[in-house]
Amino acid sequence: MKHVASIAGRELRGLFVSPVAYCVLSFFAILAGLFFVVHVRNFDEWVMRYQQMQAFDQLSEINLNDHVISLFYQSMTVVLLFAIPALTMGLFAAEKTNGTQELLLTSPLTIWDIVLGKFLAGAIFVLILGAIVGAFPGLLFAYGDPEPLRTLSGLLGLVLVGLTYVSIGVFASSLTRSQIVAFLLTFVLLLVLFILPALAELDLAGGAGAGEVLRWLSTETHLEDLLKGLVDTQHLAYFAVMIAGFLVLTKASVESVRWR
Amino acid sequence: MIEARHLSKRYGDIAAVRDVSFQVGRGEVVGFLGPNGAGKTTTMRMLTGFLPPTDGTALIAEHDIFEDPLAARRAVGYLPETLPLYPEMTVRSYLDFVARIKDVPRGVLRSSVERAMERCGLAEVSRQVIGTLSRGYRQRVGLAQAIVHDPPVLILDEPTVGLDPLQVREIRQLIRDLASPRGGQTQHTVILSTHILPEVEAICRRVILMSRGRKVVDAPLEELVRGGQSLDEIFVRETARDDVDLATEAAS
User: Fold this and answer.
1) Of A57, A152, B148, B181, which cross-links B116 as Cys (Cβ 3.0–4.6 Å)?
2) Residues A172-205: pLDDT tens digits?
3) Which chain B residue lies closest to A94 (C-alpha atoms)?
4) What does the alpha-carbon distance between residue B11 and residue A252 come to, in Å, rounded to a whole number?
5) CB distance from B83 to chain A under 8 Å?
6) B1-75+153-200: CATH homologous superfamily?
């Protein structure tokens, strides 16, 4: 555990002395602000319109959780598709170009120490991103009355999606010595994961079972329920399985350097 | 301190190292010689635990590299051919990180880093970012990371490559000091690879010459040069003889 912390600490410090962390953070914060304003404005407009139309049914249905916060969180998962690969691309690829991979692999560390250390660094960064996102719905509590638990379960969903993306990014970074290749590979993998529900709709795979599998594999499916406030163990298990799966693959990939 | 037992490494059909065995005792400084591609780096990588041998094993300070890999790696300080540096870190924070992953106890972490910096002459650049250092200083940081946990065994892959004559002298003196230290300091056992023959004459007492993955000479330096031959002549003769051997082997 001590080693995991050392690796993660070095990685985080490395991110914050290079421009990467600041680029990702500012890019993320700016887009979060833009999306938040857009969704709040939309909400405002609909409320005004319903009032003018005297549509009381719709007025009683429209609420901050469904029509601002959930939409905002979903928009931010799209931003994560770009932000996470930028964050994770160097995690292993840079060790190879620096020659420091040889240092790590000849130190009294297990491969798991290294893999978990890298993942932990990414995970802490995701928590920082989660705090940025969480601040915006926080503002709504000052002016309206969203449901706190639903707001939190949605945020939990977003963080879990981020952690899953990090595990995929760590894996992609372990496959190559080029940071650009690692970025693109992560991005493509995340994009595939993202559009799986759309693929399921197409029914190309034939048979309803295949569509179900594709839908289950997608992060979006599980995020949707969390946005509705349904913190089901089924969804938590999905994220745990995805993260553990990619970390196991990463471990195998890092270890394979020894056997080549 | 170091015992290689029938080490072999194959990459597919190519045998990089073939059945290499040797023993190195405490305080010895052994020069690993050979033309490029002779298998020096591969042998060193097997001893440090970076590459597992295809066949054979090795003992580092009595720890088998297969049975007790973490203890074996803890006992080794390794300077690879490409310096394993993080360019964005300062010298001190880098050495601090290395000391942590090499299991230096928390209580002596600071003093270990100080000692390594002092021995390698890095005190005045301790707050500098590694990426801004000159080649000579970077080489010293590389050496400092190898000795920061005070390991009994040092494996140095071309420790003086790319240095100016003055720096070469300093590093050689440092290696000599590490092998025969003054009171209280750990006596290190050193294997260093090089293809600079005068370097071997300057610091090593024993020579292991490799050619085409095999050990062809293993003898004390004195013995080798007793006949009035220079190391240079021996090098050429032994590596050439190996070529002839291979040719006859192939013909028969």
Assistant:
1) B148
2) 999 999 999 999 999 999 999 988 888 777 766 5
3) B86
4) 19
5) yes
6) P-loop containing nucleotide triphosphate hydrolases (3.40.50.300)
